């Protein structure tokens, strides 16, 4: 019983962390993606379908699902990323809703009735996959690509001048984000043994962005901290059961008032890296 | 078929109000205020709570309206006015926090179930040949269009309206001209929250049900209506709201209710790609959040 | 004394932009503030209007300490600024721009009447009063910005580099306008890069260098003061 609870919590954490990075990648470049749940649905349905109907190993099925989601992100990203700001946020939002609505009407995967999944993966596999992805992301954060992302957020025009292909970098971030969300969806589908279109509602995408902003996008650690915090905080308030989400919401509001740059910001990281640096950061 | 057209317009009138609420906030302050669906819900739910406590309907509506307005001002204080100069996503997140907070507080006290909203308007219907128009629905349509026209006149013709439009174009210049931004900005939140709350009451009366989460779906469709009509355009909000209402009712009629999201958000996505400024929007609306 | 400034300082973050600045302006006078780019001239005008907070010192307006008043209150009380870069609202009509100048007033009839006077003065504006202000040329926009400030019925009109970017003909017209307005009793505080013309117009002059007042003198004397040129060259040579 108890360990079931812990297992479940770890899986939720893992899914939330992967989702956080799927929203964070474009957000680091200043693009708000409010449709991550749609890509999650693509990954979940695709992986479930492949492992159910074609007997593909679950890992392969999830990978193919992720590639498919990346392809969709690429095809749709090209026109959608022409917009920016609020338009982009709402275009991705619409996209997420549409993707989910497609599955809601797709008879071959059970439409509104949902779709049972026969393959099963355990918590440790999910945890290890997440850690693997995190390592990849941390490596990515040391590359020039990440530098470009932050540069684009700060000043796209200047980036253009310095020959950074702004559009392509943004598209890459968007596609990678779509692929990550699909992995999260595939893992979740095989853990819960069930896929249901209704469970990929717009609020999932919105909450995901919330994790990321609360964690902070100035550093690569921010989304991880945000997601972990979001997963555990409601558990901490469990004693106050029915009030816990209200407390949680009040906490978000208060937090943003006191610390709008997120929990983990660049300054703090610099201080952590150089604890005896004296005047390392001004 | 004609009947569906009418039903679509009636439903659309609720979206019109939400779209106007959003469009004021975005068009003037450049702020996507996610607490608007929450204020919509407060309008409906608090009216229901008061009426079921035995408060006369008219008084209940008045009180619910005042409470929602007060909440709108609190939102302004803790999101927008605090966050000046921060990243654009930040006020977005904290206004979302308010949406969750409002929903959860009502959830704690009244549960998540749909509650039946009592009939407060006599059940008269207008029959034109085969067409049936409910009096409450007609009232809703007329009221929402009247509100929109009123707001549009207010912005165009009055002194404060001119000040609001100056703030919309350039807040710093507005300050240079002596417009008291610290008074006008809360006023915009107030108007936008009030419109949302009225929308919630109309919805409650028209569809006879309320719940703590009634704002979410309507809110998303209202945002879509705003974009389709053109961000920042009050007339666009009418066009967008009615169009979404029609699209929804028509797709239920022809395709089934599972197709609603597909057609509504498909319409939104197409508009965003083909004509991002919307049907009535200006081409150069500033692009922040 | 109409306006009195006592050791006023303004900081952006920790960086001082104006330090320990004092001046006095009498009613009916024209004062000019000169200085190189970044000397703190705009900062001074914004602080007088209340757009920037004073970190030290005070602003006394008609004998009253207004240091903590909001800009809208000061404008209502007779201060007005034609800001740097004119700041016309191009999405609104010319008439709406003018009306915004009168935002703090509610004497509708008087506003109407004064607006007609302004249209008489600037016939170019009158012809296009219901068109969007984006159709105006730079010079016409400057006239609109001045007309807008006048509609607040100021006792002190401050102008921040109004001649910037105007053709010589327009500059001439502008200075003639300022002289006329002053003859009509208006007190003027003018910030200019156009040193010679500004000093020819003004009664007193102040020179700022990196936020500090280095000279204040009668305009005529100042025009021949070698330190004035140093103030410009000194910064340029760095
Ligand atoms: N908003 C601001 N934030 C930070 N520093 C500022 C700001 N505005 C001005 N400064 C700095 O304050 C100093 C004075 O600026 P100010 O605009 O008052 O100069 P100025 O004399 O009007 O120059 P110019 O002739 O170029 O208009 C400059 O060093 C400028 O960089
Ligand atoms: Mg200046």
Automatic annotation (TrEMBL), chain A:
Q: Using the UniProt record, give the first listed, main subcellular location.
A: membrane
Keywords of the record, alphabetical order, are: Cell membrane, Membrane, Transmembrane, Transmembrane helix
One matching Pfam family is BPD_transp_2
MF (Gene Ontology): branched-chain amino acid transmembrane transporter activity
The regions listed as transmembrane in this protein's record are 6-25, 32-50, 56-78, 85-106, 118-140, 171-192, 204-233, 245-264
The subcellular location is: Cell membrane
Q: In its UniProt entry, what is this protein called?
A: High-affinity branched-chain amino acid transport system permease protein LivH
Q: Which residues form the signal peptide?
A: none
Q: Name one GO cellular component term.
A: plasma membrane
- Which topology term describes how it sits in the membrane? Multi-pass membrane protein
Q: Does the keyword Transmembrane helix apply?
A: yes
TrEMBL record, chain B:
How does the record classify its membrane topology? Multi-pass membrane protein
Keywords attached to this Swiss-Prot or TrEMBL record, sorted alphabetically, are: Amino-acid transport, Cell membrane, Membrane, Transmembrane, Transmembrane helix, Transport
Respond yes or no to whether keyword Membrane is given for this record: yes
Principal place where this protein is found?
Answer: membrane
- InterPro entries from the UniProt entry: ABC_transp_permease (IPR001851), BCAA_transport_permease (IPR052157)
Q: Which GO terms describe its biological process?
A: amino acid transport
Record-annotated membrane-spanning stretches = 6-24, 57-78, 90-111, 131-155, 176-203, 223-245, 252-274
Q: Where in the cell is it found?
A: Cell membrane
In terms of superkingdom, the source organism counts as Bacteria
Family classification: Belongs to the binding-protein-dependent transport system permease family. LivHM subfamily.
- The name this protein carries in UniProt is High-affinity branched-chain amino acid transport system permease protein LivH
From TrEMBL, chain C:
- Provide this UniProt record's keywords sorted from A to Z: Amino-acid transport, ATP-binding, Nucleotide-binding, Transport
Q: What span is annotated as the signal peptide, if there is one?
A: none
- Matching InterPro entries, A to Z? AAA+_ATPase, ABC_transporter-like_ATP-bd, ABC_transporter-like_CS, BCAA_Transport_ATP-bd_LivF, P-loop_NTPase
Q: Which SUPFAM superfamilies match?
A: P-loop containing nucleoside triphosphate hydrolases
Pfam families, alphabetically?
Answer: ABC_tran
- Give yes or no: UniProt keyword Nucleotide-binding: yes
Name of the protein described by the UniProt record: High-affinity branched-chain amino acid transport ATP-binding protein LivF
């Amino acid at each position: 019983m108890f360990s079931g609870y812990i297992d479940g919590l770890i899986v939720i954490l893992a899914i939330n962390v992967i989702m956080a990075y799927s929203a964070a990648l474009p957000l680091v470049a200043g693009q708000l993606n409010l449709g991550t749940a749609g890509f999650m649905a693509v990954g979940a349905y695709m992986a479930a379908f492949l492992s159910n109907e074609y007997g593909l190993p679950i890992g392969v099925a999830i990978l193919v699902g992720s590639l498919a989601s990346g392809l969709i992100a690429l095809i749709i990203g090209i026109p959608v990323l022409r917009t920016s700001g609020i338009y982009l946020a709402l275009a991705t939002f619409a996209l997420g809703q549409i993707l989910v609505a497609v599955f809601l009407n797709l008879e071959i995967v059970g439409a509104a009735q949902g779709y049972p999944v026969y393959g099963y993966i355990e918590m440790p596999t999910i945890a290890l996959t997440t850690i693997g992805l995190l390592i990849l992301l941390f490596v990515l954060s040391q590359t020039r690509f990440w530098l470009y992302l932050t540069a684009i957020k700060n000043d796209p025009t200047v980036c253009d001048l310095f020959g950074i292909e702004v559009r392509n970098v943004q598209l890459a971030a968007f596609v990678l984000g779509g692929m990550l969300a699909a992995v999260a969806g595939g893992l979740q589908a095989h853990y819960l043994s069930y896929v249901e279109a209704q469970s990929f509602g717009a609020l999932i995408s919105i909450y995901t962005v919330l994790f990321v902003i609360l964690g902070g996008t100035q550093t690569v650690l921010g989304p991880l901290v945000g997601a972990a915090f979001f997963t555990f905080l409601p558990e901490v308030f469990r004693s106050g059961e029915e009030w816990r989400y209200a407390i949680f919401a009040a906490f978000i509001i208060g937090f943003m008032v006191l610390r709008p740059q997120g929990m983990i910001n660049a300054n703090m990281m610099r201080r952590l890296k150089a604890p005896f640096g004296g005047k390392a950061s001004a | 078929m004609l009947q569906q057209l009418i039903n679509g317009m009636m439903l659309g009138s609720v979206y019109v109000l939400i779209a106007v609420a959003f469009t004021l906030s975005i068009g003037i302050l450049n702020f996507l205020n996610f607490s608007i669906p929450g204020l919509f819900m407060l309008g409906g739910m608090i009216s229901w709570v008061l009426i079921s406590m035995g408060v006369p309907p008219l008084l209940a509506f008045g009180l619910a309206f005042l409470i929602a307005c007060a909440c709108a001002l609190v939102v302004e204080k803790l999101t927008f006015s605090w966050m000046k100069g921060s990243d654009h996503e930040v006020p977005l997140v904290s206004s979302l926090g308010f949406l969750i907070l409002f929903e959860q507080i009502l959830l704690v006290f009244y549960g998540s179930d749909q509650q039946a909203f009592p009939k407060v308007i006599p059940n008269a219907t207008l029959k034109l040949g085969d067409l049936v128009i409910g009096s409450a629905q007609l009232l809703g349509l007329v009221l929402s269009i009247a509100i929109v026209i009123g707001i549009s006149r207010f912005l165009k013709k009055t002194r404060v309206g001119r000040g609001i439009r100056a703030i919309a174009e350039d807040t710093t210049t507005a300050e240079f001209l002596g417009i008291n931004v610290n008074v006008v900005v809360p006023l915009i939140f107030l108007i936008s929250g009030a419109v949302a709350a009225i929308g919630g009451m109309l919805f409650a009366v028209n569809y006879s049900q309320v719940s703590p989460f009634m704002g979410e779906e309507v809110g998303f469709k209202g945002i879509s209506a705003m974009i389709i009509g053109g961000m920042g355009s009050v007339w666009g909000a009418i066009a967008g709201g009615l169009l979404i209402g029609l699209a929804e009712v028509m797709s239920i009629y022809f395709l089934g209710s599972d197709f609603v999201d597909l057609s509504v958000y498909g319409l939104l996505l197409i508009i965003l790609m083909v004509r991002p400024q919307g049907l009535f929007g200006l081409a150069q609306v500033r692009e922040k959040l | 004394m109409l306006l009195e400034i006592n050791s006023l300082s303004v900081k952006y973050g920790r960086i001082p932009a104006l330090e320990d600045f004092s001046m006095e302006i009498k009613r009916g006078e024209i004062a000019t503030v000169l200085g190189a780019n970044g000397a703190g001239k705009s900062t001074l005008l914004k602080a007088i209007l209340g757009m920037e907070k004073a970190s030290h010192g005070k602003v006394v307006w008609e004998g009253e300490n207004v240091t903590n008043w909001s800009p809208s209150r000061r404008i209502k009380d007779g201060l007005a600024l034609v800001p740097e870069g004119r700041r016309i609202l191009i999405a609104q009509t010319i008439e709406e721009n003018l009306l915004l100048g009168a935002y703090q007033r509610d004497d509708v009839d008087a506003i109407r009447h004064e607006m007609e006077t302004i249209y008489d003065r600037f016939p170019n504006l009158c012809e296009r009063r219901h068109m969007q202000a984006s159709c105006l040329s730079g010079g016409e926009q400057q006239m609109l910005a001045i007309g807008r400030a006048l509609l607040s019925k100021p006792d002190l009109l401050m102008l921040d580099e109004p001649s910037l970017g105007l053709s010589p003909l327009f500059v001439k017209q502008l200075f003639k306008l300022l002289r006329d307005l002053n003859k009509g009793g208006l007190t003027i505080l003018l910030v200019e890069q156009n040193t010679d013309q500004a000093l020819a117009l003004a009664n007193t002059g102040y020179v700022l260098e990196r936020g500090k007042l280095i000279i204040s003198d009668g305009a005529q004397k100042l025009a021949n003061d070698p330190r004035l040129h140093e103030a410009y060259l000194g910064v340029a040579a760095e």
